[in-house]
UniProtKB/TrEMBL annotation:
Name of the protein in question: Glycosyltransferase, exosortase A system-associated
InterPro entries associated with the record: Glyco_trans_4-like_N, Glycosyltransferase_grp1, PEP-CTERM/XrtA_GlycosylTrfase
Source taxonomy: Bacteria, Pseudomonadati, Pseudomonadota, Alphaproteobacteria, Sphingomonadales
Residue ranges occupied by any Glycosyltransferase subfamily 4-like N-terminal domain in the UniProt entry: 16-188
Taxonomic source organism: Sphingomonas qomolangmaensis
Gene3D superfamilies per UniProt: Glycogen Phosphorylase B
Length: 413
């Protein structure tokens, strides 16, 4: 099979989005499929129209002239559609596979109709909800409603829809989308890349003052919806219960300055350590010195509908996970079995949950082993990618026998 993927951005940019993209492409290549990617104008300027990273080929779209919405988005979509169309000529794919945001799906649809190619649209989060979570949009605004309408328009016109979790699938079904047209391709971990935990890095622990400490960590992007301000606010109560508690913050993002200011103003500021962003190849060193990974996401539509990737990486690293009790986390974590869930938006609940974990280490080994086994069994990309195969195959078969490819038979996946 020959699959052309359409992305917002890709390697060498490092983000949860690009790590999932890389994992999908690598796993599909390992199955013997021919895969390449096209990225939109938001990838930024590149020296070449085609770039290769980590053995994967990406075709770049020339950045458009800046313009205010919605003209800017229309230009992006037109430029991306033109680039997809040109790559179709050279790569000759069997299937077009676009990944959110919705502009990618709309650009893909234009080419799919003209070229009579079957297409799959994969939603990782609803763009309008992501904007609210990032602080760049407001729920119920005109822009929010327009983006939601565009999403609904796209999912009704592509041949198949993929989503990363049941929360997104349920939302689409509530909009009237036939559930049999929606496959779930959950977030996973490339165990070959991230599944062999390093031994504790004693030198790093000593350098960060973590020897003998109860270490809570967060590794990821600093967005407001991640609830990291609540984690910092929980530290005085946690330190009162566990005087050797330390918080290690690894990463960066839009609320970095605000979080650092909150930490500096905390009465336990000396117990909070901001590392900043680190190269992906160095992340496992920091996992090795952390006892419990904390994910205190706020409760909102985005976090209730979407499953994050980072808790799965922590489980694969054999780490304990504690997370807020929102819908996206509940799809990944069984409270008391594979992790600990605490009330969202509540620093006292965070402190209580973390203090309880450190006070009782007797079940740690069993819980870490159970969580890692869950990732290996159900969230391992080498097996997850097989979910695409029956969908691709039926799309290809139907396109070859039925020229009206918008009326394809249903796939139960």
């Amino acid at each position: 099979m020959r699959i052309l993927h359409i992305f917002d951005h890709s390697l060498p940019i490092h983000s949860g989005y690009t790590y999932r993209s890389r994992a999908i492409l690598k796993a599909q290549v390992a199955r013997g499929w021919a895969v390449e990617g096209v990225t939109g104008p938001r990838q930024g300027v590149s020296d070449s129209g085609v770039e290769t990273f980590d053995g994967l080929t990406f075709h770049r779209t020339t950045a458009h002239r800046p313009a205010r919405a919605p003209l800017g988005e229309w230009r992006e979509m037109r430029a991306l559609a033109e680039r997809i169309d040109s790559v179709v000529d050279s790569f000759r794919p069997d299937v077009l596979h676009a990944h959110s945001p919705v502009l990618n799906a709309l650009a893909m649809l234009k080419v799919a109709r003209a070229r009579k190619l079957p297409c799959l649209y994969e939603i990782r989060a609803f763009w309008e909800d992501a904007a609210v979570g990032n602080g760049t949009g407001r729920e119920g605004s005109a822009r929010y409603r327009l983006t939601r309408a565009a999403e609904s328009f796209a999912v009704r016109r592509v041949d198949r829809v993929a989503v990363i979790c049941e929360g997104l699938r349920g939302d689409l079904i509530a909009r009237g989308v036939d559930g049999d047209r929606i496959m779930v391709s959950p977030n996973g971990v490339d165990m070959g890349m991230f599944g062999t935990p390093l031994p504790r890095d004693s030198a790093l622990a000593a350098a960060r003052g973590l020897n003998g400490a109860d270490v809570v960590g967060y590794v990821g992007s600093f967005y407001d919806y991640e609830g990291l301000g609540d984690l910092i606010a929980a530290m005085p109560a946690l330190v009162a219960a566990r005087p050797n508690a330390r918080l290690l913050m690894v990463g960066g993002g839009p609320v970095d300055a605000a979080l650092r200011a909150a930490a500096a103003a905390s009465p336990v500021a000396s117990h909070i350590d901001f590392v900043g962003p680190v190269p992906h190849a160095e992340v496992e060193r920091y996992y090795s010195v952390i006892d419990v990974l904390a994910y205190p996401r706020k409760r909102m539509r985005l976090t209730d509908l979407v499953t994050p990737l980072k808790p799965l990486e922590a489980m694969a690293q054999g780490k304990l996970v504690a997370a807020s009790n929102v819908g996206g986390h509940r799809e990944l974590i069984t409270d008391g079995v594979t992790g600990t869930l605490f009330a969202p938006d509540d620093p006292s609940a965070i402190a209580s949950a973390l203090a309880g974990l450190f006070a009782n280490r007797s079940g740690w080994d069993e819980r870490r082993a159970t969580a890692r086994a869950f990732v290996e069994r159900e969230r391992n990309w080498s097996s997850n990618v097989s979910r695409y195969q029956p969908v691709y195959q039926e799309l290809i078969a139907a396109a070859r026998t039925d020229t009206s490819w918008s009326r394809l038979p249903k796939v139960n996946a």
